Amino acid sequence: MTETARSATVDELRQQIGSTIGVGEWVTVTQDLIDRFADATGDHQWIHVDAQRAAAGPFGTTIAHGFLTLSLLVTIAPQVEVPAKMAVNYGLDRVRFITPVPSGSRIRAHTVLRDVTEVSGGIQTSAEITVEIEGGERPACVAVWLARFYL
Question: What's the pTM value of the predicted model, to 2 decimals?
């Protein structure tokens, strides 16, 4: 599991806009994890769960669901930490699944702080998360993640 990025005040956070605030630890996307995600979501498409059929398919193996990769951001992406009464996931501005994640691959996330804005009762951060596949040339996923911190 990735540790939270260094705690920062709002002013310190603003000074980090445009900077990489962390790179997560490598996590292996196992077939068991893919199968459990398929069970949880009801998405049992063969490219995810049928190893024999997927071996003859376009990727040569099973691949993780895009939404599985996205859900792993909670685990693999270094997070902004602000002393606050409460923090909430506010959503995503943009998500792109660029490269499939083959079963057995290792992924990690790079977090770049894009913006810090004031909202009623606190601040909102915008961070660009890039999910890297070990040994891959292109990222698996790029997403802009919004979080709100109520001060």
Answer: 0.89
